[in-house]
């Protein structure tokens, strides 16, 4: 019997599916439906060797972001407006999109850059055409260099951090926690959460590293130390 | 003995002071320091004859504001940006001041008007020189046509609603309550509260009606019906 390449691939997938289901059945055992003891012995906080102080937590976050080829800047609260303007001028951005509830002061210095307040009627073509989006975040994780958006204040809908090619995200120092469990504890699981770890990169096609496959090619973070 | 005009005035003041203190002592009686029963039999809510529905509460608020020579407009949430811009264009405003955390969308249509984000370093001369301020509010009272600011979100510090000569205030329909007791129940007494009932008018000098004595001469309210 002739087996085509497609058939082979189908067969491999089938084999994986069966293996996964078998593992699930094994794990469930005969106790299906009864509560299972979930091991919680992972580390919930940063150890003293990783971060002894708040400054260390922020430094670790910065380091991890830099590892991911994201740009990071640290500013005082009174420099935020000029820093955002300078970052956008540096990219020669002409038009950006922001959540309608972004604090006005963040954009108060934005001479020569048109900021479009997002609404449900902004179409994807417009979001694709802008030079960048500017948002806040809900929480950030130092150990993984991750930013989490939950659609709350100054964050807008998910499309803002996914469709424009460059994402400028403002993180207040008090939003940075050490670990993922600490971040989860601060978040509401019923909100639309977007976890962002560095600029978007995919290696789905022949393992070639292609930026921007599933989100912005550029991620720029401004940490505000209040 | 010669009595100067100044002496007479001093004497009159002294007389008033003694009279006031005497009344306070009378009111305190001998029970000083013990709790007093405060009569609470005033009406805490609007009666059905005043406002049978939410729409009536909003209509009453609008009517009372108009009685005070304030301008009132009603808009949907998606028209807010254009309404604020149109209101400022109509006044030929060139420069305004806003709290730094004013939602960006409120000013997104503001072509040709410079919006200054307020900070602690903005001096009074600058606040005097701008054409208007734009703020939100904490709560509004239908029966009295009053707007209350508490320094919270989109409101900024008190100077913003006192120093510029024109105050444009955005009131969301769900911020309007019927009566003062209802407003007090929503407010935190420890915050810096500013109660605004119409544009500023004083009759302190010879009972002549002088606008702008203690605040803006113009009050313009935009009610957002979400």
TrEMBL record, chains A, B:
<dbReference type="InterPro" id="IPR037171">
    <property type="entry name" value="NagB/RpiA_transferase-like"/>
</dbReference>
<dbReference type="InterPro" id="IPR003741">
    <property type="entry name" value="LUD_dom"/>
</dbReference>
<protein>
    <submittedName>
        <fullName>LUD domain-containing protein</fullName>
    </submittedName>
</protein>
<feature type="domain" description="LUD">
    <location>
        <begin position="127"/>
        <end position="224"/>
    </location>
</feature>
<dbReference type="InterPro" id="IPR024185">
    <property type="entry name" value="FTHF_cligase-like_sf"/>
</dbReference>
<dbReference type="Pfam" id="PF02589">
    <property type="entry name" value="LUD_dom"/>
</dbReference>
